Amino acid sequence: MTDRAIQVTGLTKRFGKFTAVDDVSFDVRRGEIFGFLGANGAGKSTTIRMLCGLLPPSAGTALVAGFDIRTQPEEVKRSIGYMSQRFSLYDDLTVEQNIRFYGGIYGMAGDALARRKDWVLAMADLRGREQSLTGTLSGGWKQRLALGCAILHEPGIVFLDEPTGGVDPVSRRNFWELINTLSGEGITVLVTTHFLDEAEYCNHIILINAGKLIASGSPSELKTTHVTQPILEVRLDGGAIVEALETVRASPWALETSVFGTSLHVMVADEREGARLITGALGGAGIAVRRIERIVPSLEDVFLYLLDRQDGPAAGGAAA
Amino acid sequence: MTFPLRPLKPIIVKELRQVRRDPTSLGMLLALPAAIIILVGYALNFDVKHTAMVIYDQDRTPGSRAFLDKFRHTEYFDEQYDARSYGEIEELFLRGRAKIAVVVPAEFASRLAAGEDVHVQILVDGSDANTAGQAVATATRLTSDYATRLVADAFALRGRSLPVPIDFQPRIWYNPDLISSKFLVPGLIGFIIVLTAVISTSLTVVREKERGTMEQLMVSPLRPLEIILGKTVPYLGISLIAASAILVLGYLLFGVEVRGSILFLYAAITMIILGGLGQGLLISTVTDSQQVAFMISVFSSLLPSFLLSGFIFPIATMPVFLQIISNLAVNKFFLIVVRSVMLKGVSFTAVWQPFASMAAFAALTLGLSAIRMRKRSV
After folding, report:
1. S-S: A137 plus which of A141, B131, B175, B274, CB 3.0-4.6 Å?
2. CB spacing of B10 vs A105 below 8 angstroms
3. Complex ipTM, two decimals?
4. pTM of the model
5. Nearest CA of chain A to the CA of B26: how many Å?
């Protein structure tokens, strides 16, 4: 038994001439929260669908819970739980009927099912609402019930595809606490998201763009290993943020420029020289600078930088 | 070793719960068939009786009255008017008050007595071809019967009997009174069952696709065929209940009995239901929205069942290419089997071929659905 829950090797999926997933390899350790980041259409969902045994790969393979997705999709399906953004519940069934149905299709019955049903009701805070129609529940409740139904059969690995889309911030935070609890119980969680603040909760992150894996590591590793040049945060007096962005971006010494709230993040070759150049350029444009300081890059800085480096300056400008 | 049907149970229970909670689909599956048979059974009637008749008797003698009494004393015609001119007849035809006119010429009785030819005129409103055709046929028969009687009477007066070269005595088997409901009710079973089975099942898979629950089923250990069968079984049960309701209503309202084996009849009904369910599932695996699935279901079940199956229009009179296409209407085979079983009481050996065609249709559509379902997950 290895400590690898998932081992992906050279996984590739082509649809006709389009390559959705291009030679992707990574390992997921047992009990880890593994974040899968990328824009819509980057290949996240296609990868997950292959790992769930829904889609045969064009090349490469993966071992999920020790089973080969190419040759043992049935065993893979028994070992995993899957929850999508759509909270795949039957709105016209009650909470209890949904739980019984999803338990039933995994062959659960009797005491085992009753025990897990109680667990799900407690976890999703749905005690006393067993007979409510699922369609009448709020988004946060549905989300937790959907997660509960996905892991009723106690899989060792659970795939969460954009699980926090469409719920309020409080529900999102509660949901991440749940994910942490699962991970603490030794369950491997592979989660896709496009919320970068959520990525900070992960033990390990990979970033995928246009089907290719472009970065892999823990959040802190990514921040320190990929971005070696200093990033300066520029706070302005007044609100001419767009004008400031355009002024700085037009300068050849600004390697990377983006807006964070009311301040600018600028990547430069040298901290002191950079600060001088920024103050000068903005002063020339009549924009007063309140403060400039070097910051630890956020994941967003890192990803924008990495995406920019892969796509070239034109696409990077659009992304900012 | 687990019982092979066990994985189906959760799906069957779930489908039944969903149907029960959805009054529209339950109504469509159970109430609609009953409504259709009552409506169609009474309205779709090819028996042309009580056709409104106008009589124009220019003779007005006991002889002409004796002839016209033949027309008055049949349930095929109802004497509504007594006309005094052709203008009056035309007026009645135009207003739709009468469909057939019998015109007896002056001197009808006296010319007959003198042994001369007489010409009785029958005028028919041809705008309703079916009624007109049957009215002409009935009038012709009444007239020739009367003429034969006259000749026979004349021979009898001279103490001789009339030699009849051909004694034409039609006997109609299986439905001696030619009651069209006996012909229609068996067809209605197929028509209604196919319609409701195709529509209701086509919506079930598409609904799950729209809601995203199909994806959840696909990542479970359930096999596509198990999903298909799990969705088929409950609808098969509901459709069997609906078919039984039609049989009971057909017997109570129209006196349509089952001459042959009830068991065999139900085997045929099960087969057509499976075909309809297969067709519906196939539609739902190739469509992505309930609207599209509904449209395709209605077109692909209603039109062939109604037009190409021989339900109303005989296949033998169709152009050859339509006869070939009619083989795609699974109802065609069902009609052959069910009419034979219900009206003629034939055994399985007489209709095994159309029965096998139904089985092939069901196997093909259900199999293709399972294959499509596997591909869909891609």
Report:
1. A141
2. yes
3. 0.80
4. 0.75
5. 14
